[in-house]
Each structure stands twice: as structure tokens, then as C-alpha cells.
Amino acid sequence: MSILIRQILIGACMSFIVFITVVSGTFAVFPPVNWSELWRRDVLDIPFILFFPSVSIVIGILFGFISGHYWRKQLQSVDRWLHEIEEGRSLEMDPASLNELQTISNRVSKIQKQITEQAKLSQRLATEAAEDQENRMQEIISQERNRLARELHDSVSQQLFGASMLMSAINEAKPLSEDDRETKQLKMVEEMIHQSQLEMRALLLHLRPVALRGKSLQEGTEELLVELSQKVTLNIKWKVEAFSVEKGIEDHLFRILQESVSNTLRHAKASLLEVLLIRRDGFIILRVTDDGTGFDVEENKAGSYGLHNMYERAVEIGGNVKIVSLKNKGTRLEVKIPVMSEGEKDD
Asked: Could you state, in order of their start, the residue ranges of all structural domains in the chain?
């Protein structure tokens, strides 16, 4: 039974009871002389004895209808509040229509605040858990990469170095003869071993990248290039200027440099590598140039993880990457990062 019908029935019953009580009290104090007069007297062509009970019941029904409609509206408001809380929406209340339901509205508001705080806490805990799990995974990956790099360096890299030295000694001991098929094959093997050494050093650079721990970008760049120049036959030149830059930009630029140098060692077959790191006209410019075989930029951009990684790192710090490469004429990679002043950062 709806509240509207229930209020109508209650109003009708209450009005009839009040009418009976009042009439009984009146007749008890002032008893009529002739009871038949109540039937003979008409009001609007209705006997007096039926008119007033009917009027009282109609008044009760109207009162019940109005009060039922009012309370149904109030309960619908409460239902709407609860539905908004269930849906997670912000609660909107009209204080002017909540005189009788002020206590309920206050409690609903408190419940909504508690649910909101609980949702924020749950989201924060979920975020922290995800970040913690990702950090643990990254730490495990880093440890495994370092272990694999040590094993490759201690085994395969050393064996390649020994094979390279042995092949060099054999080729130097043999008499020079361009028509000798065996001599050409030994030279080819020596070149293959040399290329394998370059790819192994590039792979080790991928597996165990040097971190800028306690060093500036300039110091880390020079240390990396000096170390490479001591280990590879590649002619490496660089110009690195000293300037201050935020830590996040330093890390991303250094990783881009590592990726670019690694790609040069593995694929370019270059004899010269030039690195430029300067700050000009509000931009930090990193330029890596080689004289290697080059490649088709558009063809390799979609399928190369290394190029995609460099583009993503540059975008994360608000910069861009431009790569120009020509077949058998080399490759130039240029990264430009805008330097924000303090006022621009605030904006």
C-alpha cells in the first residue's frame, strides 16, 4: 500500500472518529427532543444525519490526500538522495523543503562524506599498491639485467675479445696476398668478430645503462663517451657545455643519448660519432651524428622500439626529436627541449 492511499484512509478514519466523538459528546450534553428530526431535516437535499458524517469523511480524505502527497514527495527526495549516493554523484539538497527531514538530510550528508572519503582512501591505496608493485618489478628487472650483463661481459665479451686478438695475430702473420681466398676469408671473419664486439657493447649498454647518480648531465655524458672511446675503434668527438637543468630532463636526455649511441654501435657501421650538447635561445639541444650506412626513417619509425622510446622520452619533457638519415651518408638525431623560466612554470 502506498503512502498516499494509507494517508487517505487514515485521514478518513480519523475525521469520522472525531465526528462521532464530537456528536456523541454534544448529544450527551444536549440530547435532542425528537430524534426523528435528524432524518427529516435536510441540508442540500441530504438528511442532516448523513450530511455531516459525509462532509467530515470528505474533509478527512482531502486532508489525507494532501498530507500523503506531501510525505510521498519528501520520501521521494530521500530516495533520490540515496540513489545519488549509490551512483557516486554529489548530493544536492534544498534546505527550504527539509524542515521535517532536516535530521535525515544531515545524516545522509555525513554518509556521503564518509563514502567519498572511503573511495578516496581506496583509490589512494590502490594507486600506492600499483606503484609499489611496479617499483618492485622494475627493481627485479634491473637486477636481472645487471646479472645478465655481468655474465655476458665475463664470458661472451671476453671470448670475443680473445677471438679478435687471435684473428688479428693470424692475419698479421700471414703474407699479404689479395688473390688469396683464405686471406680474404680470414679478414672477413675478423670483421665479423669486430662487428660482434660492437653489438655486444651496445647490448651491454642497453642492459646496464649508466645512471646519473650524483652527477650532472654533462659529467655523465663525458664519462660515457670517454669510456666508449677506450673500448671501441670508433672515432668519437663531442662538445658538451655546462649548464643547469632539472633532474627529470637530465635523466631523459641521458637515456636518449644512450639509446642513440647504442643504435650507432649496432647498426650504423660508422667510423665517426659526434655528440653535441648545448643550450641556445631557450632550448637544450642534443645532437648525435654519425657517418654510417643510414636508414629509411619513415620505414624504421613504426617498427623500431628504440626510436619509439626516444620519441616518447622527448615528448614527456615537452621536446621533440628530429632524425635525418641518408643511405650511406650517415644519420643525425637532434633533440630540442624548451627551457622553462620560473614565471613560465607558474603559468
From this structure: 3-92, 214-347
Q: Are 170 and 186 in contact (CB under 8 A)?
A: yes
Single out the residue of 283, 280, 273, 282 nearest to residue 238, CA to CA.
273
Rounded Cα distance, 283 and 71, in Å: 69
Confidence of residue 290 (pLDDT cuts 50, 70, 90): very high
Secondary structure of 196-250 in HEC code, one letter for each residue: HHHHHHHHHHHHCCCCCCCCCHHHHHHHHHHHHHHHCCCEEEEEECCCCCCHHHH
Cell of 26: 454534544
Query: In terms of pTM, does the model score above 0.70?
Result: no
Count of CA atoms in the C-beta half-sphere (13 A) of 239? 6
Place of cell 639541444: 285
d(CA 149, CA 203): 8
**Please, which residues have CB within 8 angstroms of residue 10's CB and are 6 or more apart in sequence?**
64
Best CA proximity match to 221, nearest among 285, 130, 159: 285
CATH number among 3.30.360.10, 3.40.50.720, 3.30.565.10, 3.30.470.30, domain 214-347 = 3.30.565.10
Dump pLDDT digits (tens) for 118-159.
878 887 888 888 888 877 887 787 777 677 767 776 677 677
Query: What residues contact residue 59 under an 8 Å CB cut-off, 6+ apart?
Result: 15
pLDDT digits (tens, 9 = 90+) for 301-320: 655 667 888 898 899 899 99
Residue-wise burial string across 6-38, b where 16 or more C-beta atoms lie within 10 A, e elsewhere: ebbeebbeebeeebeeeeeeeeeeeeeeeeeee
Q: With contact defined as beta carbons under 8 Å apart, do 252 and 192 qualify? A: no
pLDDT digits (tens, 9 = 90+) for 20-45: 777 676 666 666 666 565 556 655 66
Residue 299 amino acid letter: E
